[in-house]
């Protein structure tokens, strides 16, 4: 869950300010969009546009802007990270809403007397338990770590790759009959990991927040194989919010279009390739983080295999959007870092131990550098 | 609920096209915004703006754009339809999300073993039952017509004025201890009814969809007296959609600002007073509808008292956004009109009888005129 920082960093007293890396606010991407700026990405919406609830009455997803649908398909085809042919696209108010829509669409038609179990292998995205249970739904219920799941009957497994919080490329772990899968691929983009093949699953979720950095827009989308499931997801969004903001969809379409343009061979000179630029930033940050951690006996971060990326046509490591930092056994890592004015999310929130924390790698440069300075200082105190 | 028309009206074969007045799509307002147009209401959003999840970390509602908050307050103060002093403003993805947020905020802290009853006096907004029950929540449960409610213990009553579907100015009907009220004031604006006093309740919901016509933006807001309730509503929106689209909020702020400007004594000459213009349109449509109904023995529409409006400083009728049309007893009005290619919503959906239908009065001019022609023809067939 997202919760505001008690204080924002200021330029005046950097040593007193609290750095909030608890949530994954993707402000790192501001630098790219400032350069690209006015020329490629401004959109203007006149007052008489998009008054209607409807964007496209002929479409199963009647509130989806045709332009956004087009740009989503174009981007996936170019990046090669998901199959879009013969898939229904459902737009959501961020992928959070689509997770709930998927749970509803999968569980409601079963008419089971008891709620369907929802599981994910630990460490799992910390919001899954809360999203699943906050309304005490009779349709679905959080049932914890997928590796410990042993109930009979239907279940839903959330499969996240690269995984939030730890960056691992995952596969389903339960693998039983009556299993239903929701693939959360928010981070399956070239800046974070090698694109090894186009994802091909029943329900796949993406979000602009993590792809382009536009978290404030609240735009996500699902690629759905089965028409009835897609219809049910649309139904959920209809009852929950009667569709998705048209302004946000139009802007997201414009942003995705710019990214696609930036990846063309004959692109404008002043438009740097978005994924190259973002991957370079991520690689630099991970290099700096590893240096800080290597010089420090207290901490450990996971290593990732090098794989060939079909999009960049080169070998690459995984550079996750979060660092899954581990302290020595028995230490409370979140508490330790909080003492040094670094707010992170405890491993306990992800179904793991207190020796772990999740740290956002997507903050602005100043914050990231200050974080590294302080992390190094923690070692200094304790070694 | 909103569902797309099987066919949209075209200019080519008006006699074959189906007119969909089932949902309240407020396209009537396009004509005003086209005239005001580019000059006052275009907004431009550069690509680097609003990347963050946060709009205002210091605010209880951390995803609320400060500019939108300011314009909401300004408009309410000018119109005089709600007290904003010492109220918390919570923005939502339309008022649908805020209804759910309110139900959650009121029921969750009670820790009751059984779901809290949610009631509203019939005829009630047809979406209340579905919104309340679609996730089979253990927190709240639809319990039907408030006038028949006789259970002990806490309950939530939805109070809607002017009422959707029938335009009546309402008050709570249960009036028992442990009652909690949510006031849905989507239509408490000068184009629909006299503003007789500023609303002053615990939780009041508004939406731009019905105030300005921008239903595609999905922006609503709640005025909340109690801080803990407001925090809980924010929490709901955080878990449900991690906030509300910034683009939609910025545009809504711009639209509300233009409306406020249009009501100033020293307004620009080419900016017609929004509420005067909209009220004139509504009055004309209701006059035409009454003429069509008066010439027809089959149908009846309710009459409304004339009241003094503190905003327009004049006496006015209520001109509801929906016509609550009644057929002769024993007829199925929705079926009858469907036979004449007019889609409406049956009274049964609102907890009333099949002799009633709800008809949107907010369609585009062409559609409204075609509707009146066909309504007159129904009489011709049957008289």
UniProtKB/TrEMBL annotation, chains A, B:
Q: Does the keyword Repeat apply?
A: no
- Does Aminoacyl-tRNA synthetase show up as a keyword for this record? no
Cite the CDD domains for this sequence.
Answer: AAT_like
Name the cofactor(s) required for activity, per the record: pyridoxal 5'-phosphate
Which UniProt keywords are present, listed alphabetically? Answer: Aminotransferase, Pyridoxal phosphate, Transferase
- Provide one Gene Ontology biological process annotation: amino acid metabolic process
Q: Which residues form the Alliinase C-terminal domain?
A: 19-377
Q: Where is this region: Disordered?
A: 1-17
Q: Which top-level group of life is the source organism from? A: Eukaryota
Q: Provide any one GO MF term from the record.
A: transaminase activity
Q: What Gene3D superfamilies does this protein map onto?
A: Aspartate Aminotransferase, domain 1 (3.90.1150.10), EGF-like, alliinase (2.10.25.30), Type I PLP-dependent aspartate aminotransferase-like (Major domain) (3.40.640.10)
The record's family statement is: Belongs to the alliinase family.
Q: What is this protein called?
A: L-tryptophan--pyruvate aminotransferase 1
